[in-house]
């Protein structure tokens, strides 16, 4: 045993230490939390077991066994991240340095972390977790998956893939000084989607375009309307700027005419008068049109339009060069003339990028050129409507839908993730990978029991739902028992199985319907894919078509819903293509071949589940240790009262004056 492993073995015991070294784990995300998690995994020796003489646990390794991912799990850590390193990452993602900017996060994280423990096998993927290569079989090759993501879509995708692969998932996130860690296991705990997530905050189009009253209204206008109209793709149908029932139809039509006028101005991009034309259009002509609608300003202050020539007259230096010098002062609140200078500088820079071949430019909070434009344009519009101006640093936080990331919060949350990983690994069957039974010096119990629904059960080796909160400095870490799965959750309540398709790709929808009727005993049912409903008793036009027309990537799913009077739970199928050419003409097969689907449970009464922010971080924190959640009918009311009281006493207050709050990346 290496010297570095002795302390770990004394703390965890030899059996668990061996299991840690034998483990194969997946880390999705190499940002703020991801860097800390990877460092902890490497220093604790996860995936550091090296085979000797071509054998592992006494079994000869052959090319045939290497291809069987589930049968042979090569110890190691796989890191997947699509992003590259930006300057703003360096204040909290300590595996990166200035020379790494613009390089893939996953590759650099592997290179740096490997120096901490060269014996750990790290594999880096600069790719999207949504790529088809990361299918259910890929996830099945891991003992444990860590989520260190910053967006809802990716979190939900990994959650579903882990449910389908029946692999434990450790979900984590931070918001400022607060954080959470949640262990998820199919059929054992609630999943990431068991709790409803809030929809993205949107603003009425007329508020954004005609009557802004807050800084965020001006920022959204600059980011989602003016910038795309000039340099990107029009966002008339943006989810952030939405047409609501309260919007005046005539006014909406007029605003769309203004957008068309901007497209015409876009044609003179690169000419000396471009900045003046854009400025006068949005800050003079459009404002004067609004001022003429006197009934709109009977109860509010009317906007004051601006003229380009009048403002330029008060600037002595060359305006573009002046704007370039001011743009670096991102924490200062620019004056009206300063914002005009930065606006002209940003227009000149972005126009040069378009003329150089960058036909479509998208806003990115870490793209200084686009941020300069949005910040200056938002401030100019704020001045027009009498709204306080903000520094570019403050606007970046609101425009990027972020709150400042705290490095210590990431570090603490990542350490809690690995502690939960120890519990989950010790809860796995002892015979897995030929592990020996626990010894006397292993002070950690093999099972930890908690009471759920009145029954004493082992829950992932004693894993808890852990909260990091700054409200109480005497007790910053609080826990509560993991909850049972939500019986009505559309993601974790279905039964997951595999659909093996012949390699020839000629399987029809009719063949799938026949297999479902014969194997599962369905009578009245519907079939849904990413393209929508493709079959139900009243929709049989697609039966003769190849099933491949309705299946997207290899990591997509087919959902079968029982519509009979006594419905069974939904069946979710992941696609597995047969590699056996001899079965090319055989019908599709379900795996396992025998499926027993239970009836759908009666609809449970509404409960006051923990609140979530826009990216799924729980805002209600347990006030004490071991808070028991009871799902039985008699205890539903009592449980709801306890959670409401805990939320009132220890809820994390999030002041959302800039739109949705996004987790650290």
TrEMBL record:
Pfam families: ThiF (PF00899), UAE_UbL (PF14732), UBA_E1_SCCH (PF10585). GO terms for molecular function: ATP binding; metal ion binding; SUMO activating enzyme activity. The active site is at residue 206. This is Ubiquitin-activating enzyme E1-like. Heterodimer. Belongs to the ubiquitin-activating E1 family. GO terms for biological process: protein sumoylation. PANTHER family: SUMO-ACTIVATING ENZYME SUBUNIT 2 (PTHR10953:SF5), UBIQUITIN-ACTIVATING ENZYME E1 (PTHR10953). It comes from Baudoinia panamericana (strain UAMH 10762) (Angels' share fungus).
């Amino acid at each position: 045993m290496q010297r570095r492993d002795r302390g770990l073995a004394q703390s965890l015991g030899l059996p668990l230490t061996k299991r840690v070294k034998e483990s194969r784990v997946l880390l999705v995300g190499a940002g703020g939390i991801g860097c800390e998690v990877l460092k902890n995994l490497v220093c604790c020796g996860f995936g550091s077991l090296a085979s000797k003489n071509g054998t592992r646990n006494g079994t000869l390794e052959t090319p045939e066994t290497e291809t069987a991912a589930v049968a042979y799990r090569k110890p190691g850590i796989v890191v997947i991240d699509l992003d590259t390193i930006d300057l703003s990452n360096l204040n909290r993602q300590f595996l990166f340095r200035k020379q790494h900017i613009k390089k893939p996060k996953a590759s650099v994280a592997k290179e740096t972390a490997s120096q901490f423990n060269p014996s750990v096998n790290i594999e880096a993927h600069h790719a999207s977790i949504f790529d088809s290569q990361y299918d259910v079989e890929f996830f099945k090759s891991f003992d444990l998956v860590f989520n260190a993501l910053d967006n809802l879509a990716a979190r939900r995708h990994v959650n579903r893939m882990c449910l389908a692969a029946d692999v434990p998932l450790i979900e984590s996130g931070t918001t400022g000084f607060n954080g959470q860690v949640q262990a998820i296991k199919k059929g054992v705990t609630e999943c990431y989607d068991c709790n409803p997530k809030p929809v993205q905050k949107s603003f009425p189009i007329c508020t954004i375009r005609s009557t802004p009253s807050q800084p965020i209204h001006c920022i959204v206008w600059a980011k989602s309307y003016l910038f795309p109209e000039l340099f990107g793709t029009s966002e008339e149908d943006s989810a952030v700027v939405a047409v609501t029932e309260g919007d005046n139809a005539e006014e909406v039509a007029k605003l769309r005419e203004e957008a068309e006028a901007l497209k015409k101005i876009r044609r003179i991009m690169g000419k000396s008068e471009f900045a003046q034309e854009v400025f006068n259009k949005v800050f003079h002509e459009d404002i004067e049109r609004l001022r003429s609608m006197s009934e709109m300003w009977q109860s509010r202050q009317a906007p004051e339009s601006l003229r380009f020539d009048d403002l330029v007259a008060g600037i002595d230096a060359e305006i573009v060069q002046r704007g370039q010098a001011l743009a670096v002062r991102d924490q200062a609140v620019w004056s009206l003339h300063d914002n005009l200078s930065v606006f002209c500088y940003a227009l000149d820079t972005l126009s040069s990028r378009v003329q150089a071949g960058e036909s479509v430019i998208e806003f990115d909070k870490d793209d200084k050129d686009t941020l300069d434009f949005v910040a200056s344009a938002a401030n100019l519009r704020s001045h027009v409507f009498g709204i306080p101006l903000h520094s570019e640093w403050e606007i970046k936080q609101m425009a990027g839908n972020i709150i400042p990331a705290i490095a210590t919060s990431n570090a603490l949350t990542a350490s809690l993730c690995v502690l939960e990983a120890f519990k989950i690994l010790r809860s796995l069957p002892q015979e897995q990978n030929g592990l020996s039974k626990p010894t006397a010096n292993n002070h950690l119990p093999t099972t930890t029991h908690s009471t759920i629904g009145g029954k004493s059960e082992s829950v992932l080796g004693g894993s808890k739902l852990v909260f990091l909160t700054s409200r109480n400095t005497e007790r910053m870490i609080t826990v509560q028992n993991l909850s049972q799965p939500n019986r009505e959750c559309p993601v974790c309540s279905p039964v997951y199985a595999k659909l093996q398709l012949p390699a020839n790709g000629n399987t029809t929808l009719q063949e799938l319907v026949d297999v479902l009727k014969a194997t599962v005993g369905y009578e009245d049912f519907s079939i849904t894919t990413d393209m929508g409903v493709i079959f139900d008793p009243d929709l049989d036009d697609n039966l003769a078509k190849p099933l491949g027309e309705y299946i997207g990537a290899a990591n997509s799913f087919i959902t079968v819903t029982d519509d009979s009077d006594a419905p069974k739970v939904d069946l979710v199928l992941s696609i597995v293509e047969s590699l056996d050419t001899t079965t090319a003409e055989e019908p599709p097969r379900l795996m396992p071949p025998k499926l027993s689907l239970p009836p759908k449970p009666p609809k449970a009464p509404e409960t006051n589940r923990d609140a979530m922010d826009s990216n799924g971080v729980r805002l209600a924190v347990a006030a004490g240790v071991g808070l028991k959640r009871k799902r039985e009918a008699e205890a539903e009311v009592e449980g709801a009262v306890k959670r409401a009281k805990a939320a009132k006493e220890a809820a994390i207050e999030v002041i959302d004056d800039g739109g949705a709050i996004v987790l650290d990346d």
